[in-house]
Amino acid sequence: MMKNKLRSLLLVSGFVLLAQNIQAQANRALWDNLSVEVQYGMNTALSPKEGITTSDYNGFKFFQAGLTYHIDDVWGVRGTFAMSNFQHKDLDDLGVKYSKLTLEATYNILTAVNEVMQPFDVTAHAGFGLGSGKSESLSGSDMVGVAQIGIMPKYNFSEQFAVFLDGTFVNHFSQDFGFDGLGIKQGSASYFNAGLGVQYRFKQ
Question: Does the pLDDT at position 24 exceed 70?
């Protein structure tokens, strides 16, 4: 009887240790495939141009933070949070601030071509999301749909650390505010973000 209890205890302990080991390996594999990034850069207003000069609203008022899950060395899934502030260069009461959450697919072009990870790579990315705008002139918020596509040249100093330039074309659907914060008839808007950033991958 005592031997059977001891055998059962050892068997259960073995299963517990095995499950913990499998879970630890799974968690390690998840972290190995994750990277985090931040970037700062410039907004360039493109459209609409109703009653404004778009260049008056350009400036270094763009920030983005993101997390990428690397499915393999070529493909990935990227989630980002970004803030773009379009402020008139002379008038503080004209402008709009947009924040957005997007989910994108990423594709490392040079790694795919050469079939091996490259110190220098170019990552294409595209996806959809949701955004919210706040006018400097009008009350309320402006909820918009987001579609974007971009290209990101990147230099990998190591398997963990990289610096990159990121150029992204952004289009807003169902937008009610122009870049001056006033109402628009067009119902959509587009702009370009250019940022310099760093990326850290948790891979060991």
Answer: no
Residue 137 phi, psi (nearest 5): -110, -35
Q: What is the value of pTM for the model shown?
A: 0.83
Cβ pair 204, 32 in contact under 8 A: yes
Please tell me the distance from the alpha carbon of residue 38 to that of residue 115, in angstroms, as a whole number: 27
Q: What is the Cα–Cα distance from 87 to 181, expressed in whole angstroms?
A: 9
97-110: average pLDDT: 95
Q: How is residue 52 written in tokens?
A: 């404004």
Query: Bridge-partner residues for 194, per DSSP?
Result: 42, 167
3-state secondary structure of 192: strand
Answer for the pair 129, 101: CB distance below 8 angstroms, yes or no.
yes
Q: How many CA atoms lie within 13 A of 114 on its CB side?
A: 12
What is the Cα–Cα distance from 99 to 113, expressed in whole angstroms?
35
Q: CB–CB of 88/180 below 8 Å?
A: yes
161: Cα within 13 Å, side-chain hemisphere: 2
pLDDT of 20 > 70? The answer is no
Query: What are 129-139's pLDDT values in tens digits?
Result: 999 999 888 88
